[in-house]
Amino acid sequence: MSTRVPRSAQGDPPPDTRSEPVAPGLSSESAPSGSREEAQPAPARASLSPARAAPTQRELRQDYVLAAALFVAAMISGALSSITEFYGEQTADLVWVLPLAMGTTLPLAVRRRLPITAAVVVCASYFCGVTLYVPEAFVSNVSMFIAIYTIGAWMNDRRRAVVGRAIMMVAMMVWLLISTYFAIGNAADEADVVAGAMSPLVAYMLIQWLINVAYFGGAYYMGDHAYRAALNRQDLRRLAEQLEEERELSASQAVALDRVRIARELHDVVGHHVSAMGVQAGAARTIMATNPDAAGDVLREVEQGARTAIDELHHLLDTLRDPGENHESPSALKLQDLDQLVRQVTAAGTPTTFTVIGDAVPLPPLIETNLYRIAQEALTNARRHAGPDARADIRLRYRRDTVELEVTNTGRVRAGARPGVGQLGMRERATSIGGVLHFGHREAGSDGSVERPGYLVRISVPLRENPTLEEVDA
Known about the structure:
Elements: E1 2-5, H1 57-83, H2 97-105, H3 115-131, H4 138-154, H5 158-188, H6 200-287, H7 292-321, H8 338-347, E2 352-357, H9 365-385, E3 392-398, E4 402-409, H10 421-432, E5 436-442, E6 454-462, H11 470-473
Helix pairs in contact: 1-2, 1-4, 2-3, 2-4, 3-4, 3-5, 4-6, 5-6, 6-7, 6-9, 9-10
């Protein structure tokens, strides 16, 4: 039986039950809590200083190749410089090129593992070579640049990197100042030296200083830049790995959610109709001998229920096979179909009434389908567990900012019954539409508010600030 009560005849609307911890008529021990646990703040991660990853075996092998190549280049450069008498009459013998080449190039083989040690050996060897006029200054300059650059590019202790490079550069500048002073002093004794603010000696000194400032400044800057670039690459790789992990997790969660959704739909479609068919088939078998006509009517209801179940299964399978279609749910059932559901349940042996309170408002298909399925599952549970004398009642209330569905029955309630798949499915459906679900057994009240004990299922769905309403507004 279906009844509609206009909103004007309701008087003052009852208070919103979304804030009620226990619905009226529910025992406190059986009703689930409507409150949600507050999210606990995650402990803050200790901030760690960024560090560049250790060199790989391939990079270490590349250092060996670099050191060997520079050593060969230094020997060739020394031989050619000796032939041209690079330092004039003061040029040292060619034999001194070998220790200079070894000291300025071979330490680069361990430059990534021992950057400061390698740089100190290279700079000291270069200082000795230039002081003793060893005829090789080109490859040695390249080696010293690489050594200073490596300190900035590979040392994770940034303070040591700064201090180490600063000491080396200051020492080299002091040595440059002293050597330039003696060079100018010796050249000043020559008669053709022109005095003045921009004499050749002053110009020579400025050129030396500018070249060395650019040389050491470039090594310092490029080393720091390489270190920052390496950290950025590491961050990008780490983010890419995290994104890949999140993608895999999202994919697995999507698969799990699809499996849960399919299981819920199959349970709702098959469970309701098969349960009704079982009850009706049992009734037909009981009265077959005494009242064949009535048994035939019951069997026709069984046949109709089977056809309906098959139709809904076909719709479900069509939806799953064609994900490109914009299906809100594998079921196209609406709240207006509750009338037919009530007739089916009543015909199956559980007298059920249906009342609509308030003026109906347009709702998204997702909300209508889930409310229908919750009512269907509640009635299925009543038919299974409430007993043959149970009666059921459905009330659909439209309020200003909520829509509420309430399903009650007057049957018996088994003590200590554990929640089943159906109740889990109702909770999932309520969560998917932003609703609050209460269910539990009712106890007869002394004030007459509940005449007979039984079971109640109530869901309240807010209509304001509900994301599922955007499709209706559109």
